[in-house]
Design a protein that fits this description.
Layout lengths: L9 H22 L28 H5 L2 H13 L3 H16 L7 E3 L5 E3 H7 L7 H19 L4 E7 L2 H4 L16 H12 L3 E3 H8 L17 H19 L6 E9 L8 H5 L12 E8 L10 E5 L4 H6 L1 H4 L6 E3 L3 E3 L15 H6 L3 E7 L10 H10 L1 H23 L1 H14 L3 H12 L5
Parallel strand pairs: 3-4, 3-10, 7-8, 7-10
Antiparallel strand pairs: 1-2, 5-6, 8-9
Helix pairs in contact: 6-8, 6-15, 15-16, 16-17, 16-18, 17-18
């Protein structure tokens, strides 16, 4: 009887090769890593995803409570060989076939304009606050303004335009409806009525839209364009000079480069879209060659800025060092930029609030319309209580330190931040609220 020879079909060999290919690619990357301590050799180059570089460490306790298995699965899912390729191909499919972008809370409008959906809601008044809430907050701001003025410090509120308002004509028709009122209107009209110092860049940009020689907002960016930032910074410096009766170093530009490919923050959403192939950019964008007036005798008015992400552009431009006498930026009244302690991330709650405020000459609160529902991020209530009821303020601050310590850990440890991000999505709550819930759980205050 003839012995049968075992054969393998070409299909079986191909399937086998495909199954082992990710393992082979991972092994090759492992061999090419820069040092034995390098844990990022297989990290996908994707923007906006929270990915941990640290492999879970096995212990008997995390094995029996199941956390080792879930964390290992999560790590493997983030670091497998073709993670980046598959994400980019998947995002390309949604973009090309369904006209959708896989960026949380962002949508695509007409002519490929991308928007934060919340900023569209703000432009059309769909996130409208109760007017009494706005008035209550601004009345506290007026008390702060009057208190600081006696100390030689000026408070300035600045209302910045969002892309939903600035580029309404490219918003999808399903969002468009008659506007009854907006948060911007509530803040601007009541600021004027209460006698607050405020600068309405929202209206200024709206008036400049038809006369500006270059786009004030880019197609694939979330914030104002680099050119728009330059105009905003120039306007703001002049306003502070008028308000505080001072002379600050001015910003200027000798020339403007016009290109058809967005740079830096003008393409921040495009980068977060993580596409396999980026679309053509049919928009001419302007990039002034920024010059700062070099006069140390003028650069003596420290300005503290509390703002949302719109202020990152002026920070990158160098306004803090070049015009605001080294004034800090408190991102969402939380992260301190630049850090007062080199090599360490510092948050506002770790500082002496009264000392920090009174070491500046101007306190600037700048928020875009999409964030007016949380204007100042508790800066105004905190400072109001600090000056009107210091005892209760100090008691509350001490009580909250434990929660804030854990919240900072969550923000700094990718694995913990990823869990809070998932909770934020599952419960449909802001990420900061999810972080606070997890911090309270870590502190043993809730189950």
């Amino acid at each position: 009887m003839a012995v049968k020879t075992k054969t393998y079909s070409i299909h079986s060999l191909i399937i086998l090769a495909v199954l082992f290919l990710p393992m082979l690619v991972t092994y090759l990357k492992y061999q090419q890593r820069e040092s034995p301590e390098d844990l990022t050799y297989n990290k996908p180059n994707l923007v906006g995803l929270v990915i941990s570089d640290e492999k879970p460490k096995f212990t008997w306790s995390n094995w029996f409570d199941g956390s080792y298995q879930s964390e290992s699965e999560d790590y493997t899912n983030d670091h497998w060989a073709f993670k980046e390729l598959m994400v980019r191909l998947n995002n390309q499919l949604y973009y090309k076939c369904f006209n959708q972008i896989r960026v949380n809370n962002f949508v695509i409008g007409k002519s490929d304009y991308v928007y934060s959906e919340g900023y569209i809601f703000s432009a059309f008044g769909d996130d409208l606050l109760k007017e009494e809430k706005v008035i209550s907050l601004l009345e506290k701001a007026k008390v702060i303004q009057d208190t600081l003025k006696k100390k030689g410090i000026d408070l300035l509120l600045v209302y910045a335009p969002g892309k939903g308002e600035a580029c309404k004509e490219f918003v999808e028709d399903k969002y468009v409806h008659p506007i009854k009122n907006t948060n911007h209107n509530l803040y601007a009209t009541n600021s004027k009525r209460l006698g607050l110092n405020y600068l309405d860049l929202y209206s200024y940009f709206d008036q400049s839209k038809t006369t500006s020689p270059y786009p004030l907002f880019p197609k694939f960016g979330h914030h104002w364009s680099f050119y728009g930032e330059c105009i905003a910074v120039d306007t703001l410096i002049k306003h502070i000079e008028y308000l505080h009766h001072c002379d600050l170093p001015n910003i200027s530009w000798s020339s403007i480069e016009v290109v058809d490919t967005a740079r830096s923050r003008d393409a921040d959403v495009l980068n977060s879209m993580n596409l396999y192939t980026n679309p053509e950019q049919d928009m001419k964008l302007a990039y002034p060659q920024v010059l700062w007036e070099n006069d140390s005798l003028k650069n003596t008015t420290p300005v503290l800025t509390i703002s949302d992400s719109y202020w990152y552009g002026p920070v990158y431009m160098g306004i803090g060092q070049n015009s605001f006498a080294g004034g800090k930026f408190w991102y969402y009244y939380n992260k301190v930029i630049p850090s007062p302690r080199q090599g360490e991330k510092v948050e506002v709650w770790e500082l002496d609030l009264k000392k920090e405020i009174e070491s500046n000459k101007v306190i600037l609160l700048l928020y875009s319309d999409g964030n007016l529902s949380g204007f100042g991020n508790n800066f105004i209530p905190d400072v109001y209580e600090m000056y009107t009821s210091p005892k209760t303020f100090n008691t509350r601050v001490e009580k909250n330190k434990q929660i804030q310590t854990y919240a900072k850990q969550i923000r700094e440890i990718p694995a913990l931040l990823k869990k809070s991000t998932a909770k934020s999505t599952d419960l449909q709550i802001p990420l900061d609220s999810a972080i606070k819930l997890d911090a309270m759980k870590m502190a043993g205050l809730i189950k």
